[in-house]
Amino acid sequence: MKFHWKIFLTMTSTVVGISIIFITLTHLIVKNAIDAGINETRGKEVGLLTNKLSNYYLDNKYSWDKLQQFNLLQDIHQENPSIIVMDSNQNVICYLGDSPETLITHLGIHKEIMINEQIVGQFFYYDPEVANLNKIMIGIPISVVIILLVSGALLILISLIITYQLSRWLASPLRALLPVIEQLGKGEFGVQTNVNTHDEYGKIANAINVMSTKLEQAEKARQNLTADVAHELRTPLTIIGGKLDSLQQQGKMIPPETLLPLQDELIRLNQLVEDLRTLSLAEAGELPLKKEPTNMADLAKKLLAAMEQIAEEKGISIQLDVLTNQTTISADANRIKQVLVNLLTNAIRFTPSPGAIYLRLFNENDQYLTVIVQDTGIGISPEHLPHLFDRFYRVDEARSRVSGGTGLGLAIAKQYVLSHNGILEVQSNLNQGSRFIIRLPY
């Protein structure tokens, strides 16, 4: 069943149910009001007759014999009163007055006679005024019911029309979302909805649009990953294959130095495969970490001492600024060291001489130790920043090829930081240097 029909039937049932309850309650209230009016008007007479009959029944030893001879109406001062008395078997035992029996039983006041909580008889009292009141009592509820039924039917009809339109209006955004969801289910990523409302439907549509965009990006990343892996593997495999073919055709003894280029390519292949394996483990949250208290200031000092000579050869100075005493965190020192090595190596590579690199440690908000690697290098164009941590992404393709990088360094660095529940961000402007910010929880 369609959604808008479910809404329509639900609201219709609610409207009909409320209307029936309203009609029933109104009828009962009017009827009880008229009954109360009749009892107020003839309560004295009915009470007098009830007492007389009860006393007669008790005085006559629980019998109605000769009741017809007892003048029940002598103290009733109404015009043309009449009464019919019946025993417990509904047999008429007394009939006084000039009014027809049918008129008395239909328009008279009915009262049961109770002795010791048992019904021993009943009577119907009638006079012309009571008849008029009962006619009103019969006519008013019927009139009220007819009016309520007619007005209720009109109300229900109007409500049904409004409900139908309302259900279609409520379901219309879903009808716009369904084709997009079906397309996503078929693998057509990137499709967008046209729901532009500012309510919950709009939020759902926006979430679907974002999800569709991310799925498209993920699919493109998957396709690019396959192509990139094939491309990265092709170069060393081609070199190895070509060298081996050449050596086989020569048919000579192979000197050791001839095998060195092949060994270099094999090392590069092994490094690529290991990087991919490590990155996959990190992204799956299965990267083994040996966390222990690590003093980041000491780690940074040792790292800069090892890299200082490389930087000086390029005419670049490296400066360490420790701006907090809280430099100890729980971390895998080797993984964090690889992150810093990657960032510092990139900073040295892309900072021209004379230049400077700054490594700063400070306590930002007592929750994270913030580590910043900042350089005065060539910077990064804004269009590259969103993809900087993607696999195999190179800002400068030619430069990265020459340097022998696999394009996985920053992707691995970010996953290492995320594995420590940390944050890795980048800020950069072209020709103004780059600033990598690492936040690691204490």
Automatic annotation (TrEMBL):
Tell me the Pfam families matching this sequence. Answer: HAMP, HATPase_c, HisKA
Matching entries from InterPro entries are given as: BphY/WalK/GraS-like, HAMP_dom, HATPase_C_sf, HATPase_dom, His_kinase_dom, HisK_dim/P_dom, HisK_dim/P_sf, Sig_transdc_His_kin-like_C
Q: What's the top EC group for this one?
A: transferase
Q: Which residues form the Histidine kinase domain?
A: 228-442
Which residue ranges does UniProt annotate as crossing the membrane? 7-30, 136-162
Q: Which residues form a coiled coil?
A: 208-235
User: Under which EC number(s) is this enzyme classified?
Assistant: 2.7.13.3
The annotated topology with respect to the bilayer is: Multi-pass membrane protein
Predominant location category: membrane
One GO BP:
cellular response to phosphate starvation
Q: Which GO terms describe its cellular component?
A: plasma membrane
Protein name in the entry: histidine kinase
